[in-house]
Amino acid sequence: MTNEKPEKKKKVREDEIASPKGMRDLIGKEYHAYQGFFEKAADIAGYYGFRPIETPILEREPVFTSSLGVGTDIRDKEMYTLKTKGGDHLVMRPEGTAGIMRAYIEHGMQAQPQPVMFYNYGPYFRHENPQRGRLREFRQFGLEILGTPKSIADALAIRTMTLILDEAGFKNLTVEINSIGDKTCRGGYLRALTGYYKKHLSELCPDCHERLKTNPLRLLDCKNAKCQDLKIDAPTSISSLCNDCRHHFKEVIEYLEAMNISYRINNNLVRGLDYYTRTVFEVVDNTVETSESGEVVPPLSLGGGGRYDYLAKALGSKKDIPAVGCAIGVDRVIMSPTHKTLDPRILKKPKVYFIQLGSEAKLKSFTIIETLRKAHVPIAQSLSKDGLAQQLAIAERSGAPYTIIFGQKEALDDTVIARNMETRSQETVKLSDLPDFVKHLKDELR
Ligand code: HAM
Asked: Which end of the chain has less Cβ packing within 10 Å, N or C?
Protein backbone atom coordinates (compact mmCIF):
# COMPACT_ATOMS: atom_id res chain seq x y z
CA MET A 1 0.00 0.00 0.00
CA THR A 2 1.26 3.47 -0.82
CA ASN A 3 0.52 6.55 1.24
CA GLU A 4 -0.08 8.67 -1.83
CA LYS A 5 -3.29 10.64 -1.70
CA PRO A 6 -5.52 10.17 -4.74
CA GLU A 7 -5.34 13.20 -6.99
CA LYS A 8 -8.29 15.47 -6.40
CA LYS A 9 -10.42 15.68 -9.53
CA LYS A 10 -10.92 19.23 -10.77
CA LYS A 11 -14.56 19.95 -11.48
CA VAL A 12 -15.09 20.88 -15.12
CA ARG A 13 -17.04 24.05 -15.74
CA GLU A 14 -19.96 23.87 -18.17
CA ASP A 15 -18.45 26.43 -20.54
CA GLU A 16 -15.21 24.43 -20.68
CA ILE A 17 -16.97 21.51 -22.35
CA ALA A 18 -19.64 23.32 -24.34
CA SER A 19 -19.68 22.49 -28.07
CA PRO A 20 -17.05 24.57 -29.90
CA LYS A 21 -18.04 27.96 -31.34
CA GLY A 22 -19.81 27.63 -34.69
CA MET A 23 -20.37 23.88 -34.25
CA ARG A 24 -23.55 22.30 -32.98
CA ASP A 25 -25.40 19.12 -32.10
CA LEU A 26 -28.10 17.85 -34.41
CA ILE A 27 -30.92 16.25 -32.46
CA GLY A 28 -34.46 15.00 -33.03
CA LYS A 29 -36.48 16.77 -35.73
CA GLU A 30 -33.47 18.72 -36.94
CA TYR A 31 -31.41 15.56 -37.33
CA HIS A 32 -34.21 13.99 -39.33
CA ALA A 33 -34.50 17.11 -41.51
CA TYR A 34 -30.83 16.74 -42.50
CA GLN A 35 -31.24 13.01 -43.01
CA GLY A 36 -34.40 13.50 -45.10
CA PHE A 37 -32.67 16.09 -47.28
CA PHE A 38 -29.67 13.84 -47.80
CA GLU A 39 -31.85 10.87 -48.76
CA LYS A 40 -33.77 12.91 -51.31
CA ALA A 41 -30.60 14.49 -52.70
CA ALA A 42 -28.87 11.10 -53.01
CA ASP A 43 -31.97 9.65 -54.65
CA ILE A 44 -32.12 12.41 -57.29
CA ALA A 45 -28.34 12.33 -57.84
CA GLY A 46 -28.58 8.56 -58.35
CA TYR A 47 -31.18 8.98 -61.12
CA TYR A 48 -28.87 11.43 -62.89
CA GLY A 49 -25.94 9.01 -62.82
CA PHE A 50 -23.99 10.11 -59.74
CA ARG A 51 -22.54 7.46 -57.42
CA PRO A 52 -21.58 7.88 -53.76
CA ILE A 53 -18.10 8.60 -52.49
CA GLU A 54 -16.83 9.34 -49.00
CA THR A 55 -13.34 10.75 -48.57
CA PRO A 56 -11.56 11.29 -45.23
CA ILE A 57 -12.40 14.34 -43.15
CA LEU A 58 -8.67 14.89 -42.68
CA GLU A 59 -6.45 15.30 -45.74
CA ARG A 60 -2.76 16.06 -46.05
CA GLU A 61 -2.17 19.81 -46.07
CA PRO A 62 -0.93 20.09 -49.71
CA VAL A 63 -4.27 18.73 -50.99
CA PHE A 64 -5.67 22.14 -50.11
CA THR A 65 -2.63 24.44 -50.07
CA SER A 66 -1.71 23.52 -53.64
CA SER A 67 -5.23 23.76 -54.99
CA LEU A 68 -7.38 26.41 -53.31
CA GLY A 69 -5.12 29.32 -54.22
CA VAL A 70 -2.98 31.90 -52.44
CA GLY A 71 -5.05 34.96 -51.55
CA THR A 72 -8.27 33.02 -50.95
CA ASP A 73 -9.77 33.33 -47.45
CA ILE A 74 -10.41 29.60 -47.21
CA ARG A 75 -6.76 28.71 -47.71
CA ASP A 76 -5.10 31.68 -46.02
CA LYS A 77 -7.31 32.21 -42.97
CA GLU A 78 -9.92 29.52 -42.47
CA MET A 79 -8.26 26.10 -42.50
CA TYR A 80 -8.13 24.01 -39.35
CA THR A 81 -4.62 22.58 -39.58
CA LEU A 82 -3.03 20.15 -37.18
CA LYS A 83 0.25 18.38 -36.74
CA THR A 84 -0.07 14.77 -35.64
CA LYS A 85 2.25 13.10 -33.11
CA GLY A 86 3.87 11.37 -36.09
CA GLY A 87 4.63 14.76 -37.65
CA ASP A 88 2.03 14.72 -40.45
CA HIS A 89 0.46 18.04 -41.35
CA LEU A 90 -3.23 17.46 -41.82
CA VAL A 91 -6.19 19.72 -42.54
CA MET A 92 -9.85 19.29 -41.57
CA ARG A 93 -11.35 19.49 -45.05
CA PRO A 94 -12.69 22.99 -45.78
CA GLU A 95 -14.35 21.79 -49.00
CA GLY A 96 -14.87 18.53 -50.90
CA THR A 97 -13.65 18.95 -54.46
CA ALA A 98 -9.89 18.75 -53.89
CA GLY A 99 -10.27 15.55 -51.82
CA ILE A 100 -12.43 13.92 -54.48
CA MET A 101 -9.97 14.82 -57.23
CA ARG A 102 -7.20 13.44 -55.00
CA ALA A 103 -9.16 10.18 -54.71
CA TYR A 104 -9.78 10.07 -58.49
CA ILE A 105 -6.04 10.37 -59.17
CA GLU A 106 -5.00 8.03 -56.33
CA HIS A 107 -7.32 5.25 -57.54
CA GLY A 108 -6.39 5.66 -61.20
CA MET A 109 -9.96 6.43 -62.20
CA GLN A 110 -8.70 7.79 -65.52
CA ALA A 111 -8.79 4.14 -66.63
CA GLN A 112 -12.56 3.95 -66.08
CA PRO A 113 -15.17 5.06 -68.64
CA GLN A 114 -15.36 8.85 -68.42
CA PRO A 115 -16.80 10.88 -66.92
CA VAL A 116 -16.76 9.52 -63.38
CA MET A 117 -19.64 11.05 -61.44
CA PHE A 118 -19.82 11.32 -57.68
CA TYR A 119 -22.13 12.66 -55.05
CA ASN A 120 -20.96 13.11 -51.51
CA TYR A 121 -22.33 14.36 -48.23
CA GLY A 122 -20.70 15.29 -44.97
CA PRO A 123 -19.22 17.89 -42.64
CA TYR A 124 -16.72 20.59 -43.65
CA PHE A 125 -14.73 22.96 -41.48
CA ARG A 126 -13.86 26.61 -41.96
CA HIS A 127 -12.59 28.89 -39.23
CA GLU A 128 -14.99 31.71 -40.06
CA ASN A 129 -16.78 34.17 -37.81
CA PRO A 130 -20.07 32.40 -37.04
CA GLN A 131 -23.04 34.43 -38.32
CA ARG A 132 -26.21 33.94 -40.36
CA GLY A 133 -25.50 31.11 -42.82
CA ARG A 134 -21.90 30.75 -41.66
CA LEU A 135 -20.87 27.98 -39.34
CA ARG A 136 -17.46 26.57 -38.53
CA GLU A 137 -18.71 23.04 -39.01
CA PHE A 138 -21.25 22.87 -41.82
CA ARG A 139 -22.59 20.21 -44.15
CA GLN A 140 -22.48 20.05 -47.89
CA PHE A 141 -24.11 17.83 -50.47
CA GLY A 142 -21.69 17.82 -53.41
CA LEU A 143 -21.84 16.67 -57.02
CA GLU A 144 -18.70 16.15 -59.13
CA ILE A 145 -18.34 15.11 -62.79
CA LEU A 146 -14.72 14.24 -63.52
CA GLY A 147 -13.13 13.52 -66.87
CA THR A 148 -15.13 15.58 -69.37
CA PRO A 149 -14.77 19.11 -70.76
CA LYS A 150 -18.27 19.03 -72.30
CA SER A 151 -20.66 21.87 -71.54
CA ILE A 152 -23.49 19.40 -70.96
CA ALA A 153 -21.68 18.27 -67.81
CA ASP A 154 -21.84 21.84 -66.47
CA ALA A 155 -25.56 21.85 -67.26
CA LEU A 156 -26.03 18.46 -65.63
CA ALA A 157 -24.42 19.62 -62.37
CA ILE A 158 -26.57 22.77 -62.32
CA ARG A 159 -29.72 20.86 -63.22
CA THR A 160 -29.23 18.22 -60.55
CA MET A 161 -28.49 20.84 -57.90
CA THR A 162 -31.56 22.94 -58.73
CA LEU A 163 -33.79 19.85 -58.84
CA ILE A 164 -32.65 18.82 -55.39
CA LEU A 165 -33.32 22.32 -54.05
CA ASP A 166 -36.71 22.35 -55.78
CA GLU A 167 -37.70 19.12 -53.99
CA ALA A 168 -36.63 20.72 -50.72
CA GLY A 169 -39.16 23.52 -51.25
CA PHE A 170 -37.14 26.12 -53.20
CA LYS A 171 -39.39 26.97 -56.14
CA ASN A 172 -38.02 30.42 -56.85
CA LEU A 173 -34.33 30.00 -57.58
CA THR A 174 -31.92 31.90 -59.78
CA VAL A 175 -28.60 30.56 -60.98
CA GLU A 176 -26.02 33.35 -61.01
CA ILE A 177 -23.49 32.41 -63.66
CA ASN A 178 -20.27 33.68 -65.21
CA SER A 179 -17.31 32.40 -67.20
CA ILE A 180 -13.83 33.28 -66.00
CA GLY A 181 -12.02 31.80 -69.00
CA ASP A 182 -9.13 29.36 -69.27
CA LYS A 183 -5.36 29.62 -69.57
CA THR A 184 -5.65 30.99 -73.12
CA CYS A 185 -7.68 34.03 -72.18
CA ARG A 186 -7.39 34.44 -68.40
CA GLY A 187 -3.98 36.17 -68.55
CA GLY A 188 -5.24 38.87 -70.90
CA TYR A 189 -8.28 39.43 -68.72
CA LEU A 190 -6.23 39.74 -65.54
CA ARG A 191 -4.00 42.31 -67.22
CA ALA A 192 -7.06 44.34 -68.22
CA LEU A 193 -8.51 44.03 -64.72
CA THR A 194 -5.32 45.04 -62.87
CA GLY A 195 -4.77 47.85 -65.38
CA TYR A 196 -8.21 49.21 -64.57
CA TYR A 197 -7.82 48.92 -60.78
CA LYS A 198 -4.34 50.43 -60.80
CA LYS A 199 -5.90 53.60 -62.15
CA HIS A 200 -8.12 53.72 -59.06
CA LEU A 201 -5.62 52.85 -56.33
CA SER A 202 -6.62 55.69 -54.02
CA GLU A 203 -10.27 54.51 -54.06
CA LEU A 204 -9.49 50.91 -53.03
CA CYS A 205 -9.95 49.40 -49.55
CA PRO A 206 -6.77 48.02 -47.89
CA ASP A 207 -7.80 44.40 -48.64
CA CYS A 208 -8.16 45.19 -52.33
CA HIS A 209 -4.66 46.70 -52.37
CA GLU A 210 -3.48 43.27 -51.27
CA ARG A 211 -5.79 41.45 -53.72
CA LEU A 212 -4.34 43.49 -56.57
CA LYS A 213 -0.96 41.90 -55.79
CA THR A 214 -1.96 38.35 -54.82
CA ASN A 215 -5.26 37.49 -56.50
CA PRO A 216 -6.76 40.21 -58.74
CA LEU A 217 -9.92 38.21 -59.61
CA ARG A 218 -10.94 38.53 -55.95
CA LEU A 219 -11.21 42.31 -56.44
CA LEU A 220 -14.61 41.62 -57.98
CA ASP A 221 -15.74 39.78 -54.86
CA CYS A 222 -14.95 42.62 -52.41
CA LYS A 223 -17.83 43.35 -50.03
CA ASN A 224 -16.45 46.70 -48.82
CA ALA A 225 -18.83 49.58 -49.62
CA LYS A 226 -15.88 51.67 -50.82
CA CYS A 227 -15.15 49.29 -53.69
CA GLN A 228 -18.68 48.70 -55.00
CA ASP A 229 -18.85 51.61 -57.46
CA LEU A 230 -15.54 50.62 -59.01
CA LYS A 231 -16.95 47.25 -60.02
CA ILE A 232 -19.52 48.88 -62.28
CA ASP A 233 -16.99 49.92 -64.92
CA ALA A 234 -14.46 47.12 -64.33
CA PRO A 235 -13.73 45.03 -67.45
CA THR A 236 -15.76 41.80 -67.52
CA SER A 237 -14.23 38.38 -67.96
CA ILE A 238 -16.87 37.48 -70.56
CA SER A 239 -15.64 40.26 -72.84
CA SER A 240 -12.12 38.72 -72.76
CA LEU A 241 -13.10 35.08 -73.44
CA CYS A 242 -11.24 33.22 -76.18
CA ASN A 243 -13.34 31.55 -78.88
CA ASP A 244 -13.39 28.12 -77.21
CA CYS A 245 -14.44 29.54 -73.84
CA ARG A 246 -17.05 31.77 -75.43
CA HIS A 247 -18.51 28.82 -77.31
CA HIS A 248 -18.49 26.66 -74.17
CA PHE A 249 -20.25 29.32 -72.15
CA LYS A 250 -22.83 29.89 -74.90
CA GLU A 251 -23.63 26.17 -74.88
CA VAL A 252 -24.05 26.07 -71.10
CA ILE A 253 -26.49 29.00 -71.30
CA GLU A 254 -28.38 27.30 -74.12
CA TYR A 255 -28.82 24.19 -71.99
CA LEU A 256 -30.12 26.27 -69.08
CA GLU A 257 -32.59 27.98 -71.37
CA ALA A 258 -33.72 24.67 -72.84
CA MET A 259 -34.35 23.38 -69.30
CA ASN A 260 -36.14 26.56 -68.24
CA ILE A 261 -33.67 27.19 -65.46
CA SER A 262 -33.82 30.80 -64.37
CA TYR A 263 -30.34 32.34 -64.61
CA ARG A 264 -28.62 35.72 -64.46
CA ILE A 265 -25.18 36.45 -65.86
CA ASN A 266 -23.25 38.01 -63.00
CA ASN A 267 -20.02 39.63 -64.22
CA ASN A 268 -18.71 39.94 -60.66
CA LEU A 269 -19.09 36.25 -59.80
CA VAL A 270 -15.60 34.80 -59.39
CA ARG A 271 -16.09 32.40 -56.39
CA GLY A 272 -13.91 32.06 -53.32
CA LEU A 273 -11.70 29.23 -54.58
CA ASP A 274 -8.92 29.47 -57.12
CA TYR A 275 -9.26 26.21 -58.97
CA TYR A 276 -12.07 27.34 -61.24
CA THR A 277 -11.90 27.73 -65.02
CA ARG A 278 -14.64 28.74 -67.42
CA THR A 279 -18.09 28.26 -65.84
CA VAL A 280 -18.71 29.45 -62.27
CA PHE A 281 -22.15 29.60 -60.67
CA GLU A 282 -24.09 30.08 -57.46
CA VAL A 283 -27.73 29.42 -56.67
CA VAL A 284 -29.82 31.91 -54.73
CA ASP A 285 -33.39 31.77 -53.44
CA ASN A 286 -35.42 34.78 -54.63
CA THR A 287 -38.01 34.49 -51.87
CA VAL A 288 -37.78 37.73 -49.93
CA GLU A 289 -36.77 37.08 -46.35
CA THR A 290 -37.29 39.73 -43.69
CA SER A 291 -35.63 40.02 -40.29
CA GLU A 292 -37.61 40.36 -37.04
CA SER A 293 -37.34 44.13 -37.38
CA GLY A 294 -38.89 43.92 -40.86
CA GLU A 295 -35.73 44.57 -42.87
CA VAL A 296 -35.12 42.62 -46.05
CA VAL A 297 -32.19 40.22 -45.52
CA PRO A 298 -29.92 39.69 -48.52
CA PRO A 299 -30.20 36.17 -49.99
CA LEU A 300 -27.43 33.73 -49.21
CA SER A 301 -26.02 31.45 -51.82
CA LEU A 302 -27.53 28.00 -51.20
CA GLY A 303 -24.92 26.31 -53.31
CA GLY A 304 -22.19 26.99 -55.78
CA GLY A 305 -19.67 25.44 -58.07
CA GLY A 306 -17.99 25.55 -61.41
CA ARG A 307 -15.53 23.93 -63.76
CA TYR A 308 -12.04 23.06 -62.52
CA ASP A 309 -10.08 21.79 -65.52
CA TYR A 310 -6.59 22.43 -64.03
CA LEU A 311 -7.12 21.19 -60.47
CA ALA A 312 -5.80 17.71 -61.26
CA LYS A 313 -2.37 19.04 -62.30
CA ALA A 314 -2.18 21.16 -59.14
CA LEU A 315 -2.63 17.86 -57.28
CA GLY A 316 0.20 16.11 -59.12
CA SER A 317 -1.60 14.55 -62.08
CA LYS A 318 0.56 14.43 -65.22
CA LYS A 319 -2.45 15.25 -67.37
CA ASP A 320 -5.21 17.79 -66.96
CA ILE A 321 -8.52 16.21 -66.00
CA PRO A 322 -11.40 18.45 -67.06
CA ALA A 323 -14.13 18.42 -64.45
CA VAL A 324 -17.11 20.33 -63.11
CA GLY A 325 -19.16 20.19 -59.94
CA CYS A 326 -21.01 22.01 -57.22
CA ALA A 327 -22.02 21.77 -53.58
CA ILE A 328 -25.18 22.66 -51.70
CA GLY A 329 -24.82 24.22 -48.24
CA VAL A 330 -27.21 21.92 -46.41
CA ASP A 331 -27.34 23.99 -43.19
CA ARG A 332 -28.43 27.03 -45.19
CA VAL A 333 -31.14 24.92 -46.82
CA ILE A 334 -32.45 23.54 -43.52
CA MET A 335 -32.33 26.92 -41.75
CA SER A 336 -34.11 28.77 -44.56
CA PRO A 337 -37.81 29.59 -43.99
CA THR A 338 -38.44 28.42 -47.58
CA HIS A 339 -37.23 24.90 -46.79
CA LYS A 340 -39.81 22.11 -46.83
CA THR A 341 -38.86 19.34 -44.41
CA LEU A 342 -38.40 15.97 -46.08
CA ASP A 343 -38.97 13.00 -43.77
CA PRO A 344 -36.28 10.33 -43.96
CA ARG A 345 -37.38 6.77 -44.70
CA ILE A 346 -36.18 5.64 -41.29
CA LEU A 347 -38.66 7.94 -39.56
CA LYS A 348 -41.84 5.90 -39.22
CA LYS A 349 -44.92 6.64 -37.19
CA PRO A 350 -45.38 3.90 -34.60
CA LYS A 351 -48.27 1.60 -35.48
CA VAL A 352 -48.07 -0.42 -32.29
CA TYR A 353 -47.26 0.64 -28.77
CA PHE A 354 -45.87 -2.21 -26.74
CA ILE A 355 -46.67 -2.37 -23.02
CA GLN A 356 -45.17 -4.91 -20.61
CA LEU A 357 -46.04 -5.58 -16.98
CA GLY A 358 -44.02 -7.60 -14.48
CA SER A 359 -40.60 -9.21 -14.54
CA GLU A 360 -41.63 -12.34 -16.47
CA ALA A 361 -43.12 -10.20 -19.25
CA LYS A 362 -40.10 -7.91 -19.31
CA LEU A 363 -37.87 -10.91 -19.92
CA LYS A 364 -39.90 -12.09 -22.91
CA SER A 365 -40.43 -8.58 -24.30
CA PHE A 366 -37.49 -8.76 -26.65
CA THR A 367 -39.00 -11.72 -28.51
CA ILE A 368 -42.19 -9.79 -29.15
CA ILE A 369 -40.38 -6.64 -30.25
CA GLU A 370 -38.28 -8.73 -32.61
CA THR A 371 -41.38 -10.36 -34.13
CA LEU A 372 -42.78 -6.91 -34.82
CA ARG A 373 -39.47 -5.64 -36.26
CA LYS A 374 -39.18 -8.65 -38.57
CA ALA A 375 -42.70 -7.95 -39.80
CA HIS A 376 -41.64 -4.31 -40.41
CA VAL A 377 -44.26 -2.95 -38.05
CA PRO A 378 -42.99 0.33 -36.57
CA ILE A 379 -43.36 0.22 -32.81
CA ALA A 380 -42.77 2.35 -29.76
CA GLN A 381 -42.21 1.13 -26.24
CA SER A 382 -40.94 2.18 -22.84
CA LEU A 383 -39.30 -0.94 -21.47
CA SER A 384 -37.93 0.92 -18.49
CA LYS A 385 -41.41 1.80 -17.24
CA ASP A 386 -43.43 -0.56 -15.02
CA GLY A 387 -47.02 0.62 -14.37
CA LEU A 388 -49.95 0.03 -16.74
CA ALA A 389 -51.51 3.49 -16.34
CA GLN A 390 -48.21 5.22 -17.01
CA GLN A 391 -47.50 3.16 -20.14
CA LEU A 392 -51.07 3.52 -21.43
CA ALA A 393 -50.80 7.29 -21.09
CA ILE A 394 -47.62 7.29 -23.18
CA ALA A 395 -49.26 4.95 -25.71
CA GLU A 396 -52.17 7.37 -26.00
CA ARG A 397 -49.84 10.30 -26.62
CA SER A 398 -47.80 8.36 -29.18
CA GLY A 399 -50.81 8.19 -31.49
CA ALA A 400 -50.15 4.50 -32.27
CA PRO A 401 -53.43 2.92 -33.45
CA TYR A 402 -52.74 -0.37 -31.63
CA THR A 403 -51.32 -1.34 -28.26
CA ILE A 404 -49.97 -4.75 -27.44
CA ILE A 405 -50.19 -5.48 -23.74
CA PHE A 406 -48.04 -8.20 -22.30
CA GLY A 407 -48.78 -8.72 -18.61
CA GLN A 408 -47.83 -11.28 -15.97
CA LYS A 409 -50.73 -13.57 -16.93
CA GLU A 410 -50.03 -13.29 -20.67
CA ALA A 411 -46.36 -14.05 -20.05
CA LEU A 412 -47.38 -17.31 -18.34
CA ASP A 413 -49.99 -18.17 -21.03
CA ASP A 414 -47.77 -17.18 -23.94
CA THR A 415 -50.34 -14.71 -25.24
CA VAL A 416 -50.63 -10.95 -25.73
CA ILE A 417 -53.58 -8.59 -25.60
CA ALA A 418 -53.99 -6.51 -28.74
CA ARG A 419 -55.99 -3.37 -28.15
CA ASN A 420 -57.43 -1.12 -30.84
CA MET A 421 -56.87 2.36 -29.42
CA GLU A 422 -59.72 3.91 -31.36
CA THR A 423 -62.52 1.39 -30.71
CA ARG A 424 -61.01 0.22 -27.38
CA SER A 425 -61.82 -3.37 -28.45
CA GLN A 426 -59.33 -5.99 -27.29
CA GLU A 427 -58.49 -9.52 -28.31
CA THR A 428 -56.12 -12.13 -26.98
CA VAL A 429 -53.56 -13.46 -29.45
CA LYS A 430 -51.34 -16.51 -28.93
CA LEU A 431 -47.63 -15.73 -29.18
CA SER A 432 -47.33 -18.42 -31.84
CA ASP A 433 -50.03 -16.61 -33.86
CA LEU A 434 -48.44 -13.19 -33.39
CA PRO A 435 -46.57 -13.08 -36.75
CA ASP A 436 -49.84 -13.80 -38.60
CA PHE A 437 -51.78 -11.34 -36.51
CA VAL A 438 -49.16 -8.67 -37.10
CA LYS A 439 -49.28 -9.30 -40.83
CA HIS A 440 -53.02 -8.80 -40.86
CA LEU A 441 -52.58 -5.69 -38.69
CA LYS A 442 -50.08 -4.30 -41.16
CA ASP A 443 -52.54 -4.70 -44.03
CA GLU A 444 -55.31 -3.14 -41.98
CA LEU A 445 -53.20 -0.14 -41.05
CA ARG A 446 -51.65 0.41 -44.45
P1 HAM B 1 -18.42 26.93 -51.67
O2 HAM B 1 -19.14 28.01 -52.41
O3 HAM B 1 -17.26 27.34 -50.85
O4 HAM B 1 -17.98 25.85 -52.75
O5 HAM B 1 -19.45 26.16 -50.76
C6 HAM B 1 -20.65 25.66 -51.28
C7 HAM B 1 -21.83 26.03 -50.39
O8 HAM B 1 -21.56 25.64 -49.04
C9 HAM B 1 -22.07 27.54 -50.28
O10 HAM B 1 -22.85 28.01 -51.36
C11 HAM B 1 -22.81 27.64 -48.96
O12 HAM B 1 -24.19 27.34 -49.15
C13 HAM B 1 -22.18 26.53 -48.15
N14 HAM B 1 -21.19 27.07 -47.19
C15 HAM B 1 -19.93 27.48 -47.46
N16 HAM B 1 -19.32 27.90 -46.33
C17 HAM B 1 -20.22 27.76 -45.33
C18 HAM B 1 -20.20 28.02 -43.93
N19 HAM B 1 -19.13 28.49 -43.31
N20 HAM B 1 -21.32 27.74 -43.19
C21 HAM B 1 -22.44 27.23 -43.80
N22 HAM B 1 -22.50 26.98 -45.12
C23 HAM B 1 -21.43 27.22 -45.88
C24 HAM B 1 -17.29 24.72 -52.46
O25 HAM B 1 -17.07 24.33 -51.35
C26 HAM B 1 -16.88 23.95 -53.70
N27 HAM B 1 -16.11 22.77 -53.27
C28 HAM B 1 -18.09 23.55 -54.52
C29 HAM B 1 -17.71 22.81 -55.74
C30 HAM B 1 -17.88 21.48 -55.98
N31 HAM B 1 -17.09 23.32 -56.80
C32 HAM B 1 -16.88 22.35 -57.69
N33 HAM B 1 -17.33 21.24 -57.19
From this structure: N
